[in-house]
Write a structure and sequence with these properties.
The protein has helices at residues 3-21, 26-33, 37-62, 67-87, 91-119, 125-154, 156-177, 185-188, 190-199, 203-224, 226-234, 241-262, 267-287, 294-320, 325-352, 359-385. By secondary structure, the protein is mostly helical. Helix 2 packs across helix 3. 58% of the residues are buried.
Length: 406
């Protein structure tokens, strides 16, 4: 893989740290700003909503800007709103900064995914995607626990300052590594946008977008409320939350690594095995949430399964949207963050209804079950009707497409 993809992964690490770090900071934010835990959880949903709205809209902007212009602009905006978030005493302003930060993150990720897909060899989009998603998983391993630790030591605002500082070398790395490639005028205007939008009507693509949203919703539902689950149900002290988040992140890194090696060659097999296992693990996690021995093991396994299945779905979205490289990346980003908004909202609703701290885990199991039902129905329908446009395979050996060796 080209070096530039790993440097883009550094920027994704900074952004992933911001997106995930609230998992360890929600109780402190709720206490300082005098809001409910579910209101604090809405900060995660606001970020996700910004990603959903920003991904397709800013991907369209990415059709008109060169990559070297678009990527640093999005990153600088991301940096500045974190400074504002670290300074504000207002919940409303903090909520707004999460939304704007997400817009910038969405634009960056849409263009970065298109860049990765364009630089990958034919049949290697899964590997290229895994490099970028590795930045997200490393945020879980290092960035998010570090943010939680900073919150314990110096308050939640210090984590926002850390993300702002972390974004500085990411900006410099992108400026140094991304080639100056002005988009030709003829390729950047309305005809190209219309052509890409037509490609996005593929039933196969719509299916993968739905599945990605549901699986990511399950992940964020549980992860957002991990801190209160660990302290109130499992019995861990608040100081253990960073370590638990790191375990989830280590599992996520392992899952993305495996997906990067298998998603191009065996996508359907990976999804067929990983999906039901993911559902089983959410169920076991809910049942065993009171065990301080089982919970750390399950967090690692859950991180691996969630990100292996999620990364595979992202790579399949990129294969299905090969005729719309920029908007395809934008819609992939939007779909994942529909889930990231839906998951915490559903988990918060379950908590507000008085269903207990285990209820987000049961909600994650429900969302995963829905994804399996939709995928299964689509597969059965395609086999009965011979509909080539809706079956699961989109690239790799499982679909009969030869993947070139390198």
């Amino acid at each position: 893989m080209p070096l530039v993809l790993y440097l883009l992964g550094l920027a994704v690490f900074a952004q992933g740290t911001s997106e995930f770090m609230l998992s360890g900071l929600l109780p402190d934010i709720a206490r300082e700003l005098r809001i409910s835990l579910s209101a604090a959880g809405a900060l995660t949903s606001a970020f996700a909503v910004g990603m959903v709205i920003g991904a397709p809209l800013l991907a369209l902007l990415g059709l008109r800007w060169s990559r070297r212009r678009a990527l640093p602009a999005f990153l600088v905006t991301f940096l500045l709103v974190h400074v504002l978030g670290a300074l504000t005493p207002s919940y409303g302003v903090l909520l707004a900064t999460r939304f704007v930060a997400a817009l910038a993150n969405a634009g960056f990720l849409a263009v970065a995914l298109a860049t990765a897909a364009s630089m990958a060899a034919p049949g290697a989009k899964g590997r290229a995607t895994s490099v970028l998603l590795a930045g997200t998983t490393m945020a879980c391993v290092a960035g998010v626990p570090a943010g939680a630790l900073l919150g314990e030591l110096w308050g939640w605002r210090s984590a926002f300052w850390a993300v702002a500082l972390l974004s500085v070398p990411a900006v410099l790395a992108v400026l140094w590594s991304v080639p100056a490639d002005p988009v030709p005028r003829s390729a950047a205007g309305r005809p190209r946008a219309c052509a890409e939008l037509r490609t996005l009507r593929s039933p196969r693509l719509v299916l993968f977008l739905l599945l990605g949203a549901l699986v990511n919703g399950a992940t964020f539902c549980a992860l957002t409320y991990l801190a209160p689950l660990a302290t109130e149900v499992t019995g861990f002290g608040a100081g253990w939350v960073p370590a638990l988040l790191a375990l989830f992140g280590l599992g996520a890194f392992a899952g993305v690594t495996v997906a990067g090696r298998l998603a191009d060659a065996r996508p359907v097999r990976l999804l067929a095995v990983g999906g039901p296992t993911l559902l089983a693990c959410w169920t076991v996690s809910a049942l065993a949430a009171g065990s301080p021995v089982a919970v750390p093991v399950l967090l690692f396994v859950q991180g691996a399964l969630s990100f292996a299945v999620g990364a595979t779905l992202v790579s399949q979205i990129l294969y299905a949207a090969s005729g719309a490289p920029v908007l395809g990346g934008g819609f992939a980003t939007a779909a994942l963050n529909v889930g990231a908004a839906l998951g915490p909202w559903c988990g918060g609703a379950a908590l507000t209804a008085g269903l207990g701290h285990r209820s987000p885990l049961w909600t994650s199991a429900l969302l995963t079950a829905l994804a399996l039902i939709l995928g299964g129905l689509a597969h059965v329908t395609s086999r009965r009707g011979g509909a080539a446009g809706t079956h699961l395979p989109a690239g790799g050996h499982d679909s009969g497409e030869a993947v070139p060796t390198r």
